UniProtKB/TrEMBL annotation:
Pfam families in UniProt: F-box (PF00646)
Designated name of the protein: F-box domain-containing protein
Region annotation (Disordered) ranges: 1-34
All residue ranges annotated as the F-box domain in the record: 41-81
Organism from which the protein derives: Rubus argutus (Southern blackberry)
SUPFAM superfamilies per the UniProt record, alphabetical: F-box domain, RNI-like
Organism superkingdom: Eukaryota
């Protein structure tokens, strides 16, 4: 019996040792992806392996480097290097440690290789301290990186996001080759030395905080060749700042502010072509070359569009997304060149006059499930001003939102008497009879040649008459 217990003890200890050895091997493999066995996979020509790795996503390419030493060597020389921490393992400290060790080992191996980088990406959680991130930035900038994508994921603690990672603009001072910069989840601190990114063409800032509007403007002015600037969910200063700050650029072609905390800007960019703005109405009088204007939740006076054609003679696309009007008087939209008009559930009592002879497409999005009689009359009068469109799209939550009762049909003229092409999208299934809906649509547009109806993304009708 004693011998049996001793044998069982040896088996148990041996199993424990095997588990420990396997765990150690797994950890070593994660720390050093070049620790692989070459016996099973024959060497392919280096150009073939390079082509295969180039076609894979950066994450898959990194994982594929364990195939053989040859693959690991070639992966080390690829001009694209992206590290992406999986958010699903945020509570796994062991996996977190492996990820950080993986980054350090990759950078250590690549120190011997001074080849330039086309792209460097880092997506990781922030737990305090920025040594690894600064090490990554220095590594990428030393290798003349062209595209830099840094995303810092903030943890949720007691229902609130953890503090932002502070990043000094000094780290970019020597990034002479940078053409694309994407930052997310950082607080960008202005240094005493102004940053100069002479080659930068595109900059995207998401959930980025600046200590002042001046810090943000210094960043923009440090990019004399910038063409595309996208700012989302960021803090650029106080929205009640009485001072109007100017954004001046001769190179800027596209500017977007979405869901930002910011002051009013005077945008002096005479070559800009596309504008997407929210909040208070910015001064865009000097932007006479814009072809696309998108206003989101913007507070506008009705006279904002007066003289639209003379102020923006090249404007082809206009989007008004849930805007607020200073008064409910009359708005004029006159333009010979406007080809696309999009209107999201704005103030329906607004009276509109239009002259849009070249309008190709008009899109209207309304979310009132069951509009009142009065609202339907306003809707009919509003839509009537866009009968000039060659193609119209109506997007509603419920089909009842566009069913005009007999009382209105017998009293009012149809809103689209000459419209030929109508597309309707309904978000939810309703109890409305299809024939009732189709009958209402044919009253709205008696000259239809094409009618399409989608419900829950499924086509329930597509007909030519």
């Amino acid at each position: 019996m004693a011998k049996k217990r001793k044998a069982e003890g040896r088996c148990y200890n041996g199993a424990n040792r095997n588990k420990k050895m396997k765990k150690q091997e797994d950890d070593d493999r994660n720390r050093n992806p070049s620790m692989v066995v070459d016996t099973y996979i024959p060497d392919l020509p280096d150009p073939a392996v390079h082509q295969i790795l180039s076609l894979l996503s950066p994450k898959l390419a990194a994982r594929s480097s364990i195939v053989s030493k040859q693959w690991a060597r070639i992966w080390d020389s690829l001009p694209v290097l992206v590290f992406d921490e999986d958010e699903k393992i945020c509570t796994d400290s062991h996996r977190r440690k492996l990820f950080m060790n993986f980054i350090r080992n990759c950078l250590k191996r690549r120190k011997r290789d001074k080849c330039d980088l086309d792209k460097f990406g880092l997506r990781m959680r922030y737990n305090g301290g920025a040594s690894t991130m600064n090490q990554c930035l220095s590594f990428a900038i030393e290798r003349n990186v062209k595209e830099l994508d840094i995303c810092i994921i903030r943890r949720k603690m007691f229902g609130k996001l953890s503090r932002l990672c502070y990043l000094s603009s000094t780290v970019f001072s020597s990034a002479k080759s940078l053409t694309i910069l994407k930052l997310e989840g950082v607080n960008l601190k202005e240094s005493i030395h102004p940053m100069r990114l002479l080659s930068l063409k595109t900059m995207s800032l998401e959930s980025v905080e600046f200590n002042s509007t001046s810090d943000f403007l210094h960043l923009v002015y440090g990019c004399p060749s910038i063409e595309n600037l996208l700012v989302t969910s960021s803090t650029l200063g106080s929205p009640v700042d009485p001072k109007v700050h100017s954004i001046s650029s001769l190179s800027l072609k596209s500017l977007e502010f979405t869901q930002c905390r910011r002051p009013v800007f005077k945008i002096e960019a005479m070559n800009i072509e596309s504008l997407k703005l929210d909040g208070w109405a910015d001064d865009i009088a000097s932007c006479q070359k814009i072809t696309s204007l998108d206003l989101f939740c913007t507070y506008l006076p009705c006279h904002y569009f007066n003289g639209l054609e003379s102020r923006f003679p090249l404007l082809e696309s206009l989007t008004l997304h849930k805007c607020w009007w200073e008064d409910a008087e009359h708005m004029n939209i006159f333009s010979q060149h406007l080809k696309r008009f999009v209107f999201f559930e704005n103030y329906m009592q607004l009276k509109v006059s239009t002259n849009l002879p070249n309008l190709l497409q008009a899109t209207f999005v309304f979310w009132d499930a069951v509009p009142s009689y009065l609202r339907l009359t306003y809707l009919g009068e509003f839509l009537k001003q866009f009968d000039c469109s060659r193609k119209t799209s109506l997007q509603v939550t419920d089909a009842k939102g566009i069913i005009f009762p007999e009382e209105i049909r017998n009293t009012w003229s149809p809103p689209f008497p000459t419209l030929k092409h109508l597309e309707v999208e309904i978000s939810y299934t309703t109890a409305v009879n299809d024939y009732v809906l189709i009958d209402s649509l044919h009253w709205m547009a008696p000259s239809l040649e094409f009618l399409s109806i989608k419900q829950n993304s499924l086509v329930i009708l597509s007909e030519r008459t």
